[in-house]
Amino acid sequence: MKERVEELSDGTLRLSVDKALYDSETVLKTAHKFTDQCYIKLDVYDDELMISFKSKEGNNAILGSIVDDFLNELIDQQVRAMVQRECGQIRDQIVKKAFSPIE
Length: 103
Fold this sequence. Notes:
- By secondary structure, the chain is α+β, with helices and mostly antiparallel strands.
- It has a single domain (4-98), classed as 2-Layer Sandwich (Gyrase A, domain 2), CATH 3.30.1360.
- The chain contains 2 helices and 4 strands; from the N terminus they run ββαββα.
- Strands 1-2-4-3 form a 4-stranded antiparallel beta sheet.
């Protein structure tokens, strides 16, 4: 499934993303970064995560740009999560060694 955006009757934009592409935790972390810019609501439907964006100031014109930025950040956060899963143990060993007592 491809991401899609639809405009609701109240001006809210609803973004649908595939759960197979993005972890729920990644979507939640990304949504948190945007709560200062707009109201965000998260829902789950079958194989989709639905993210709704509603303007805090009534300026719906900026929502399209916010959704675009959200998608970019979502990719960034998903890649970070993947790197953490793949390389987290290596990072932990480096940190452990760096903070171990000097002999």
